[in-house]
Amino acid sequence: MSPTVPGRTPERGSVADLVHLYCPAHARAVLADLLALEAEIRTSARPDLDHSIAHVRLEWWQAEAERALAGKAAHPLTRALCAALAPQMLDLRLLVHSARLEVAGLAGADAAAWQSFYEGSLGTLFAVLGLALARTAPPATLRALGGAVQQLTTERGAPGPALGAALQALPPTLQPALRPLLVWVALVGWRTARGIEVPDEAPPQGVWLGLAQQWVAWRAARAAEAGAFRWRWRTAAMTPPTRSYQ
Predict the structure, then answer these.
(1) Cα–Cα distance list, 167 to 56, 69, 146, 238 (Å)
(2) Each residue of 205-214: pLDDT tens digit?
């Protein structure tokens, strides 16, 4: 984690909190820095922020994304992530682009714009965290998986074919290393299927749902460790002792 800009600690009981729990030590620092960096970039899309200020901020972050690819990052969080991923390069360009789309407004946007938003936002987090977890993980597949999860988070409906395709594209041999990302998939899917309305950044309401969520995360992690993670929308709304993830 950056010594000068602290990473973002997920709220207890949130999706990211449980993902953090199942991360190895080195990846926990990456996740914290990633969440903090995303929040910094997303600040540009705040509705109360003047558009001229938003565009100036995004221009700076666009330049920072290019600096990161050149190994000359300026922001402490970007430098920390570059160091954690080395020798792979940190690519934030699609994350900045997704923030631009948000500033411009996505109401009435076509499917291609929405897909760019999905894969640029959570897709970037999946790609970066995935590389920290498994250096041989395919970034494009990770980005598509994160994009499909972002679509679930945004639309709160049944998943499209992208989620199943992205999961199928992940070799079972990579599942143990990518356990935190598969826990993320399971938790968002379970929350969506159960109609839990609170944001993924917050815990579900009620002790029972909190315990059920922990069970879902544990079950998904166990399946991933065995290379047998399978997510089924039909049974995702069920609570323990369902066998949704194996």
Answers:
(1) 37, 28, 10, 21
(2) 888 999 999 9
